[in-house]
Amino acid sequence: SNGLDFLDLISHELRQPLTAALGSVITLIDRTDDLTGEQKTKLLEITARNLAQLSSLIDSLRIFNDADRGSLRVVPASVLVEELFSDCAEDFPDARTHRTLVTSCPPGLMINVDKTLFKQVVTNLVGNAMKFAPAGSTVTLSAAESGPDLLITVRDQGHGFPEHESERIFDKSVKLIPGASGLGLGLYVAR
pTM of this prediction? Predict the structure, then answer.
């Protein structure tokens, strides 16, 4: 039953952005002559946003599956942290999220990571903060050197979670807020 429940959840989470994107494209095709340029742009933005969400969900599922099987392929390379943060920020435009993402990183800071996996981890952490932070608030993504390590911090102005749940939030399929959207894999994949 747990496997079927998870499959139902995945189907729902994938169908939601797909249906929204498809609806926008169909409207563009069926009513292209009746729509203003501004309306067309809005429909294209809806499509792009939902396809990006769908892509992120699929990436999380792939990483989750590969990690679970012990076959996750990691290809490290030297990457500029500012560039990764900038790529991540593009996934969270202020108008869509009703929250502001602020990034802070020392200029020229490099890290040796798998760029795709690292971006997915940062995107999952920021996405979680954006989802649960109050509308109109700020989420801060920052990086700092800590000896030989890199410390990545995501701060939001949300209510947080109970201290006794601090380890459990990284478990597979855990959602502390009943009915919250998502698969409950974002923080699991990040860990």
Answer: 0.63
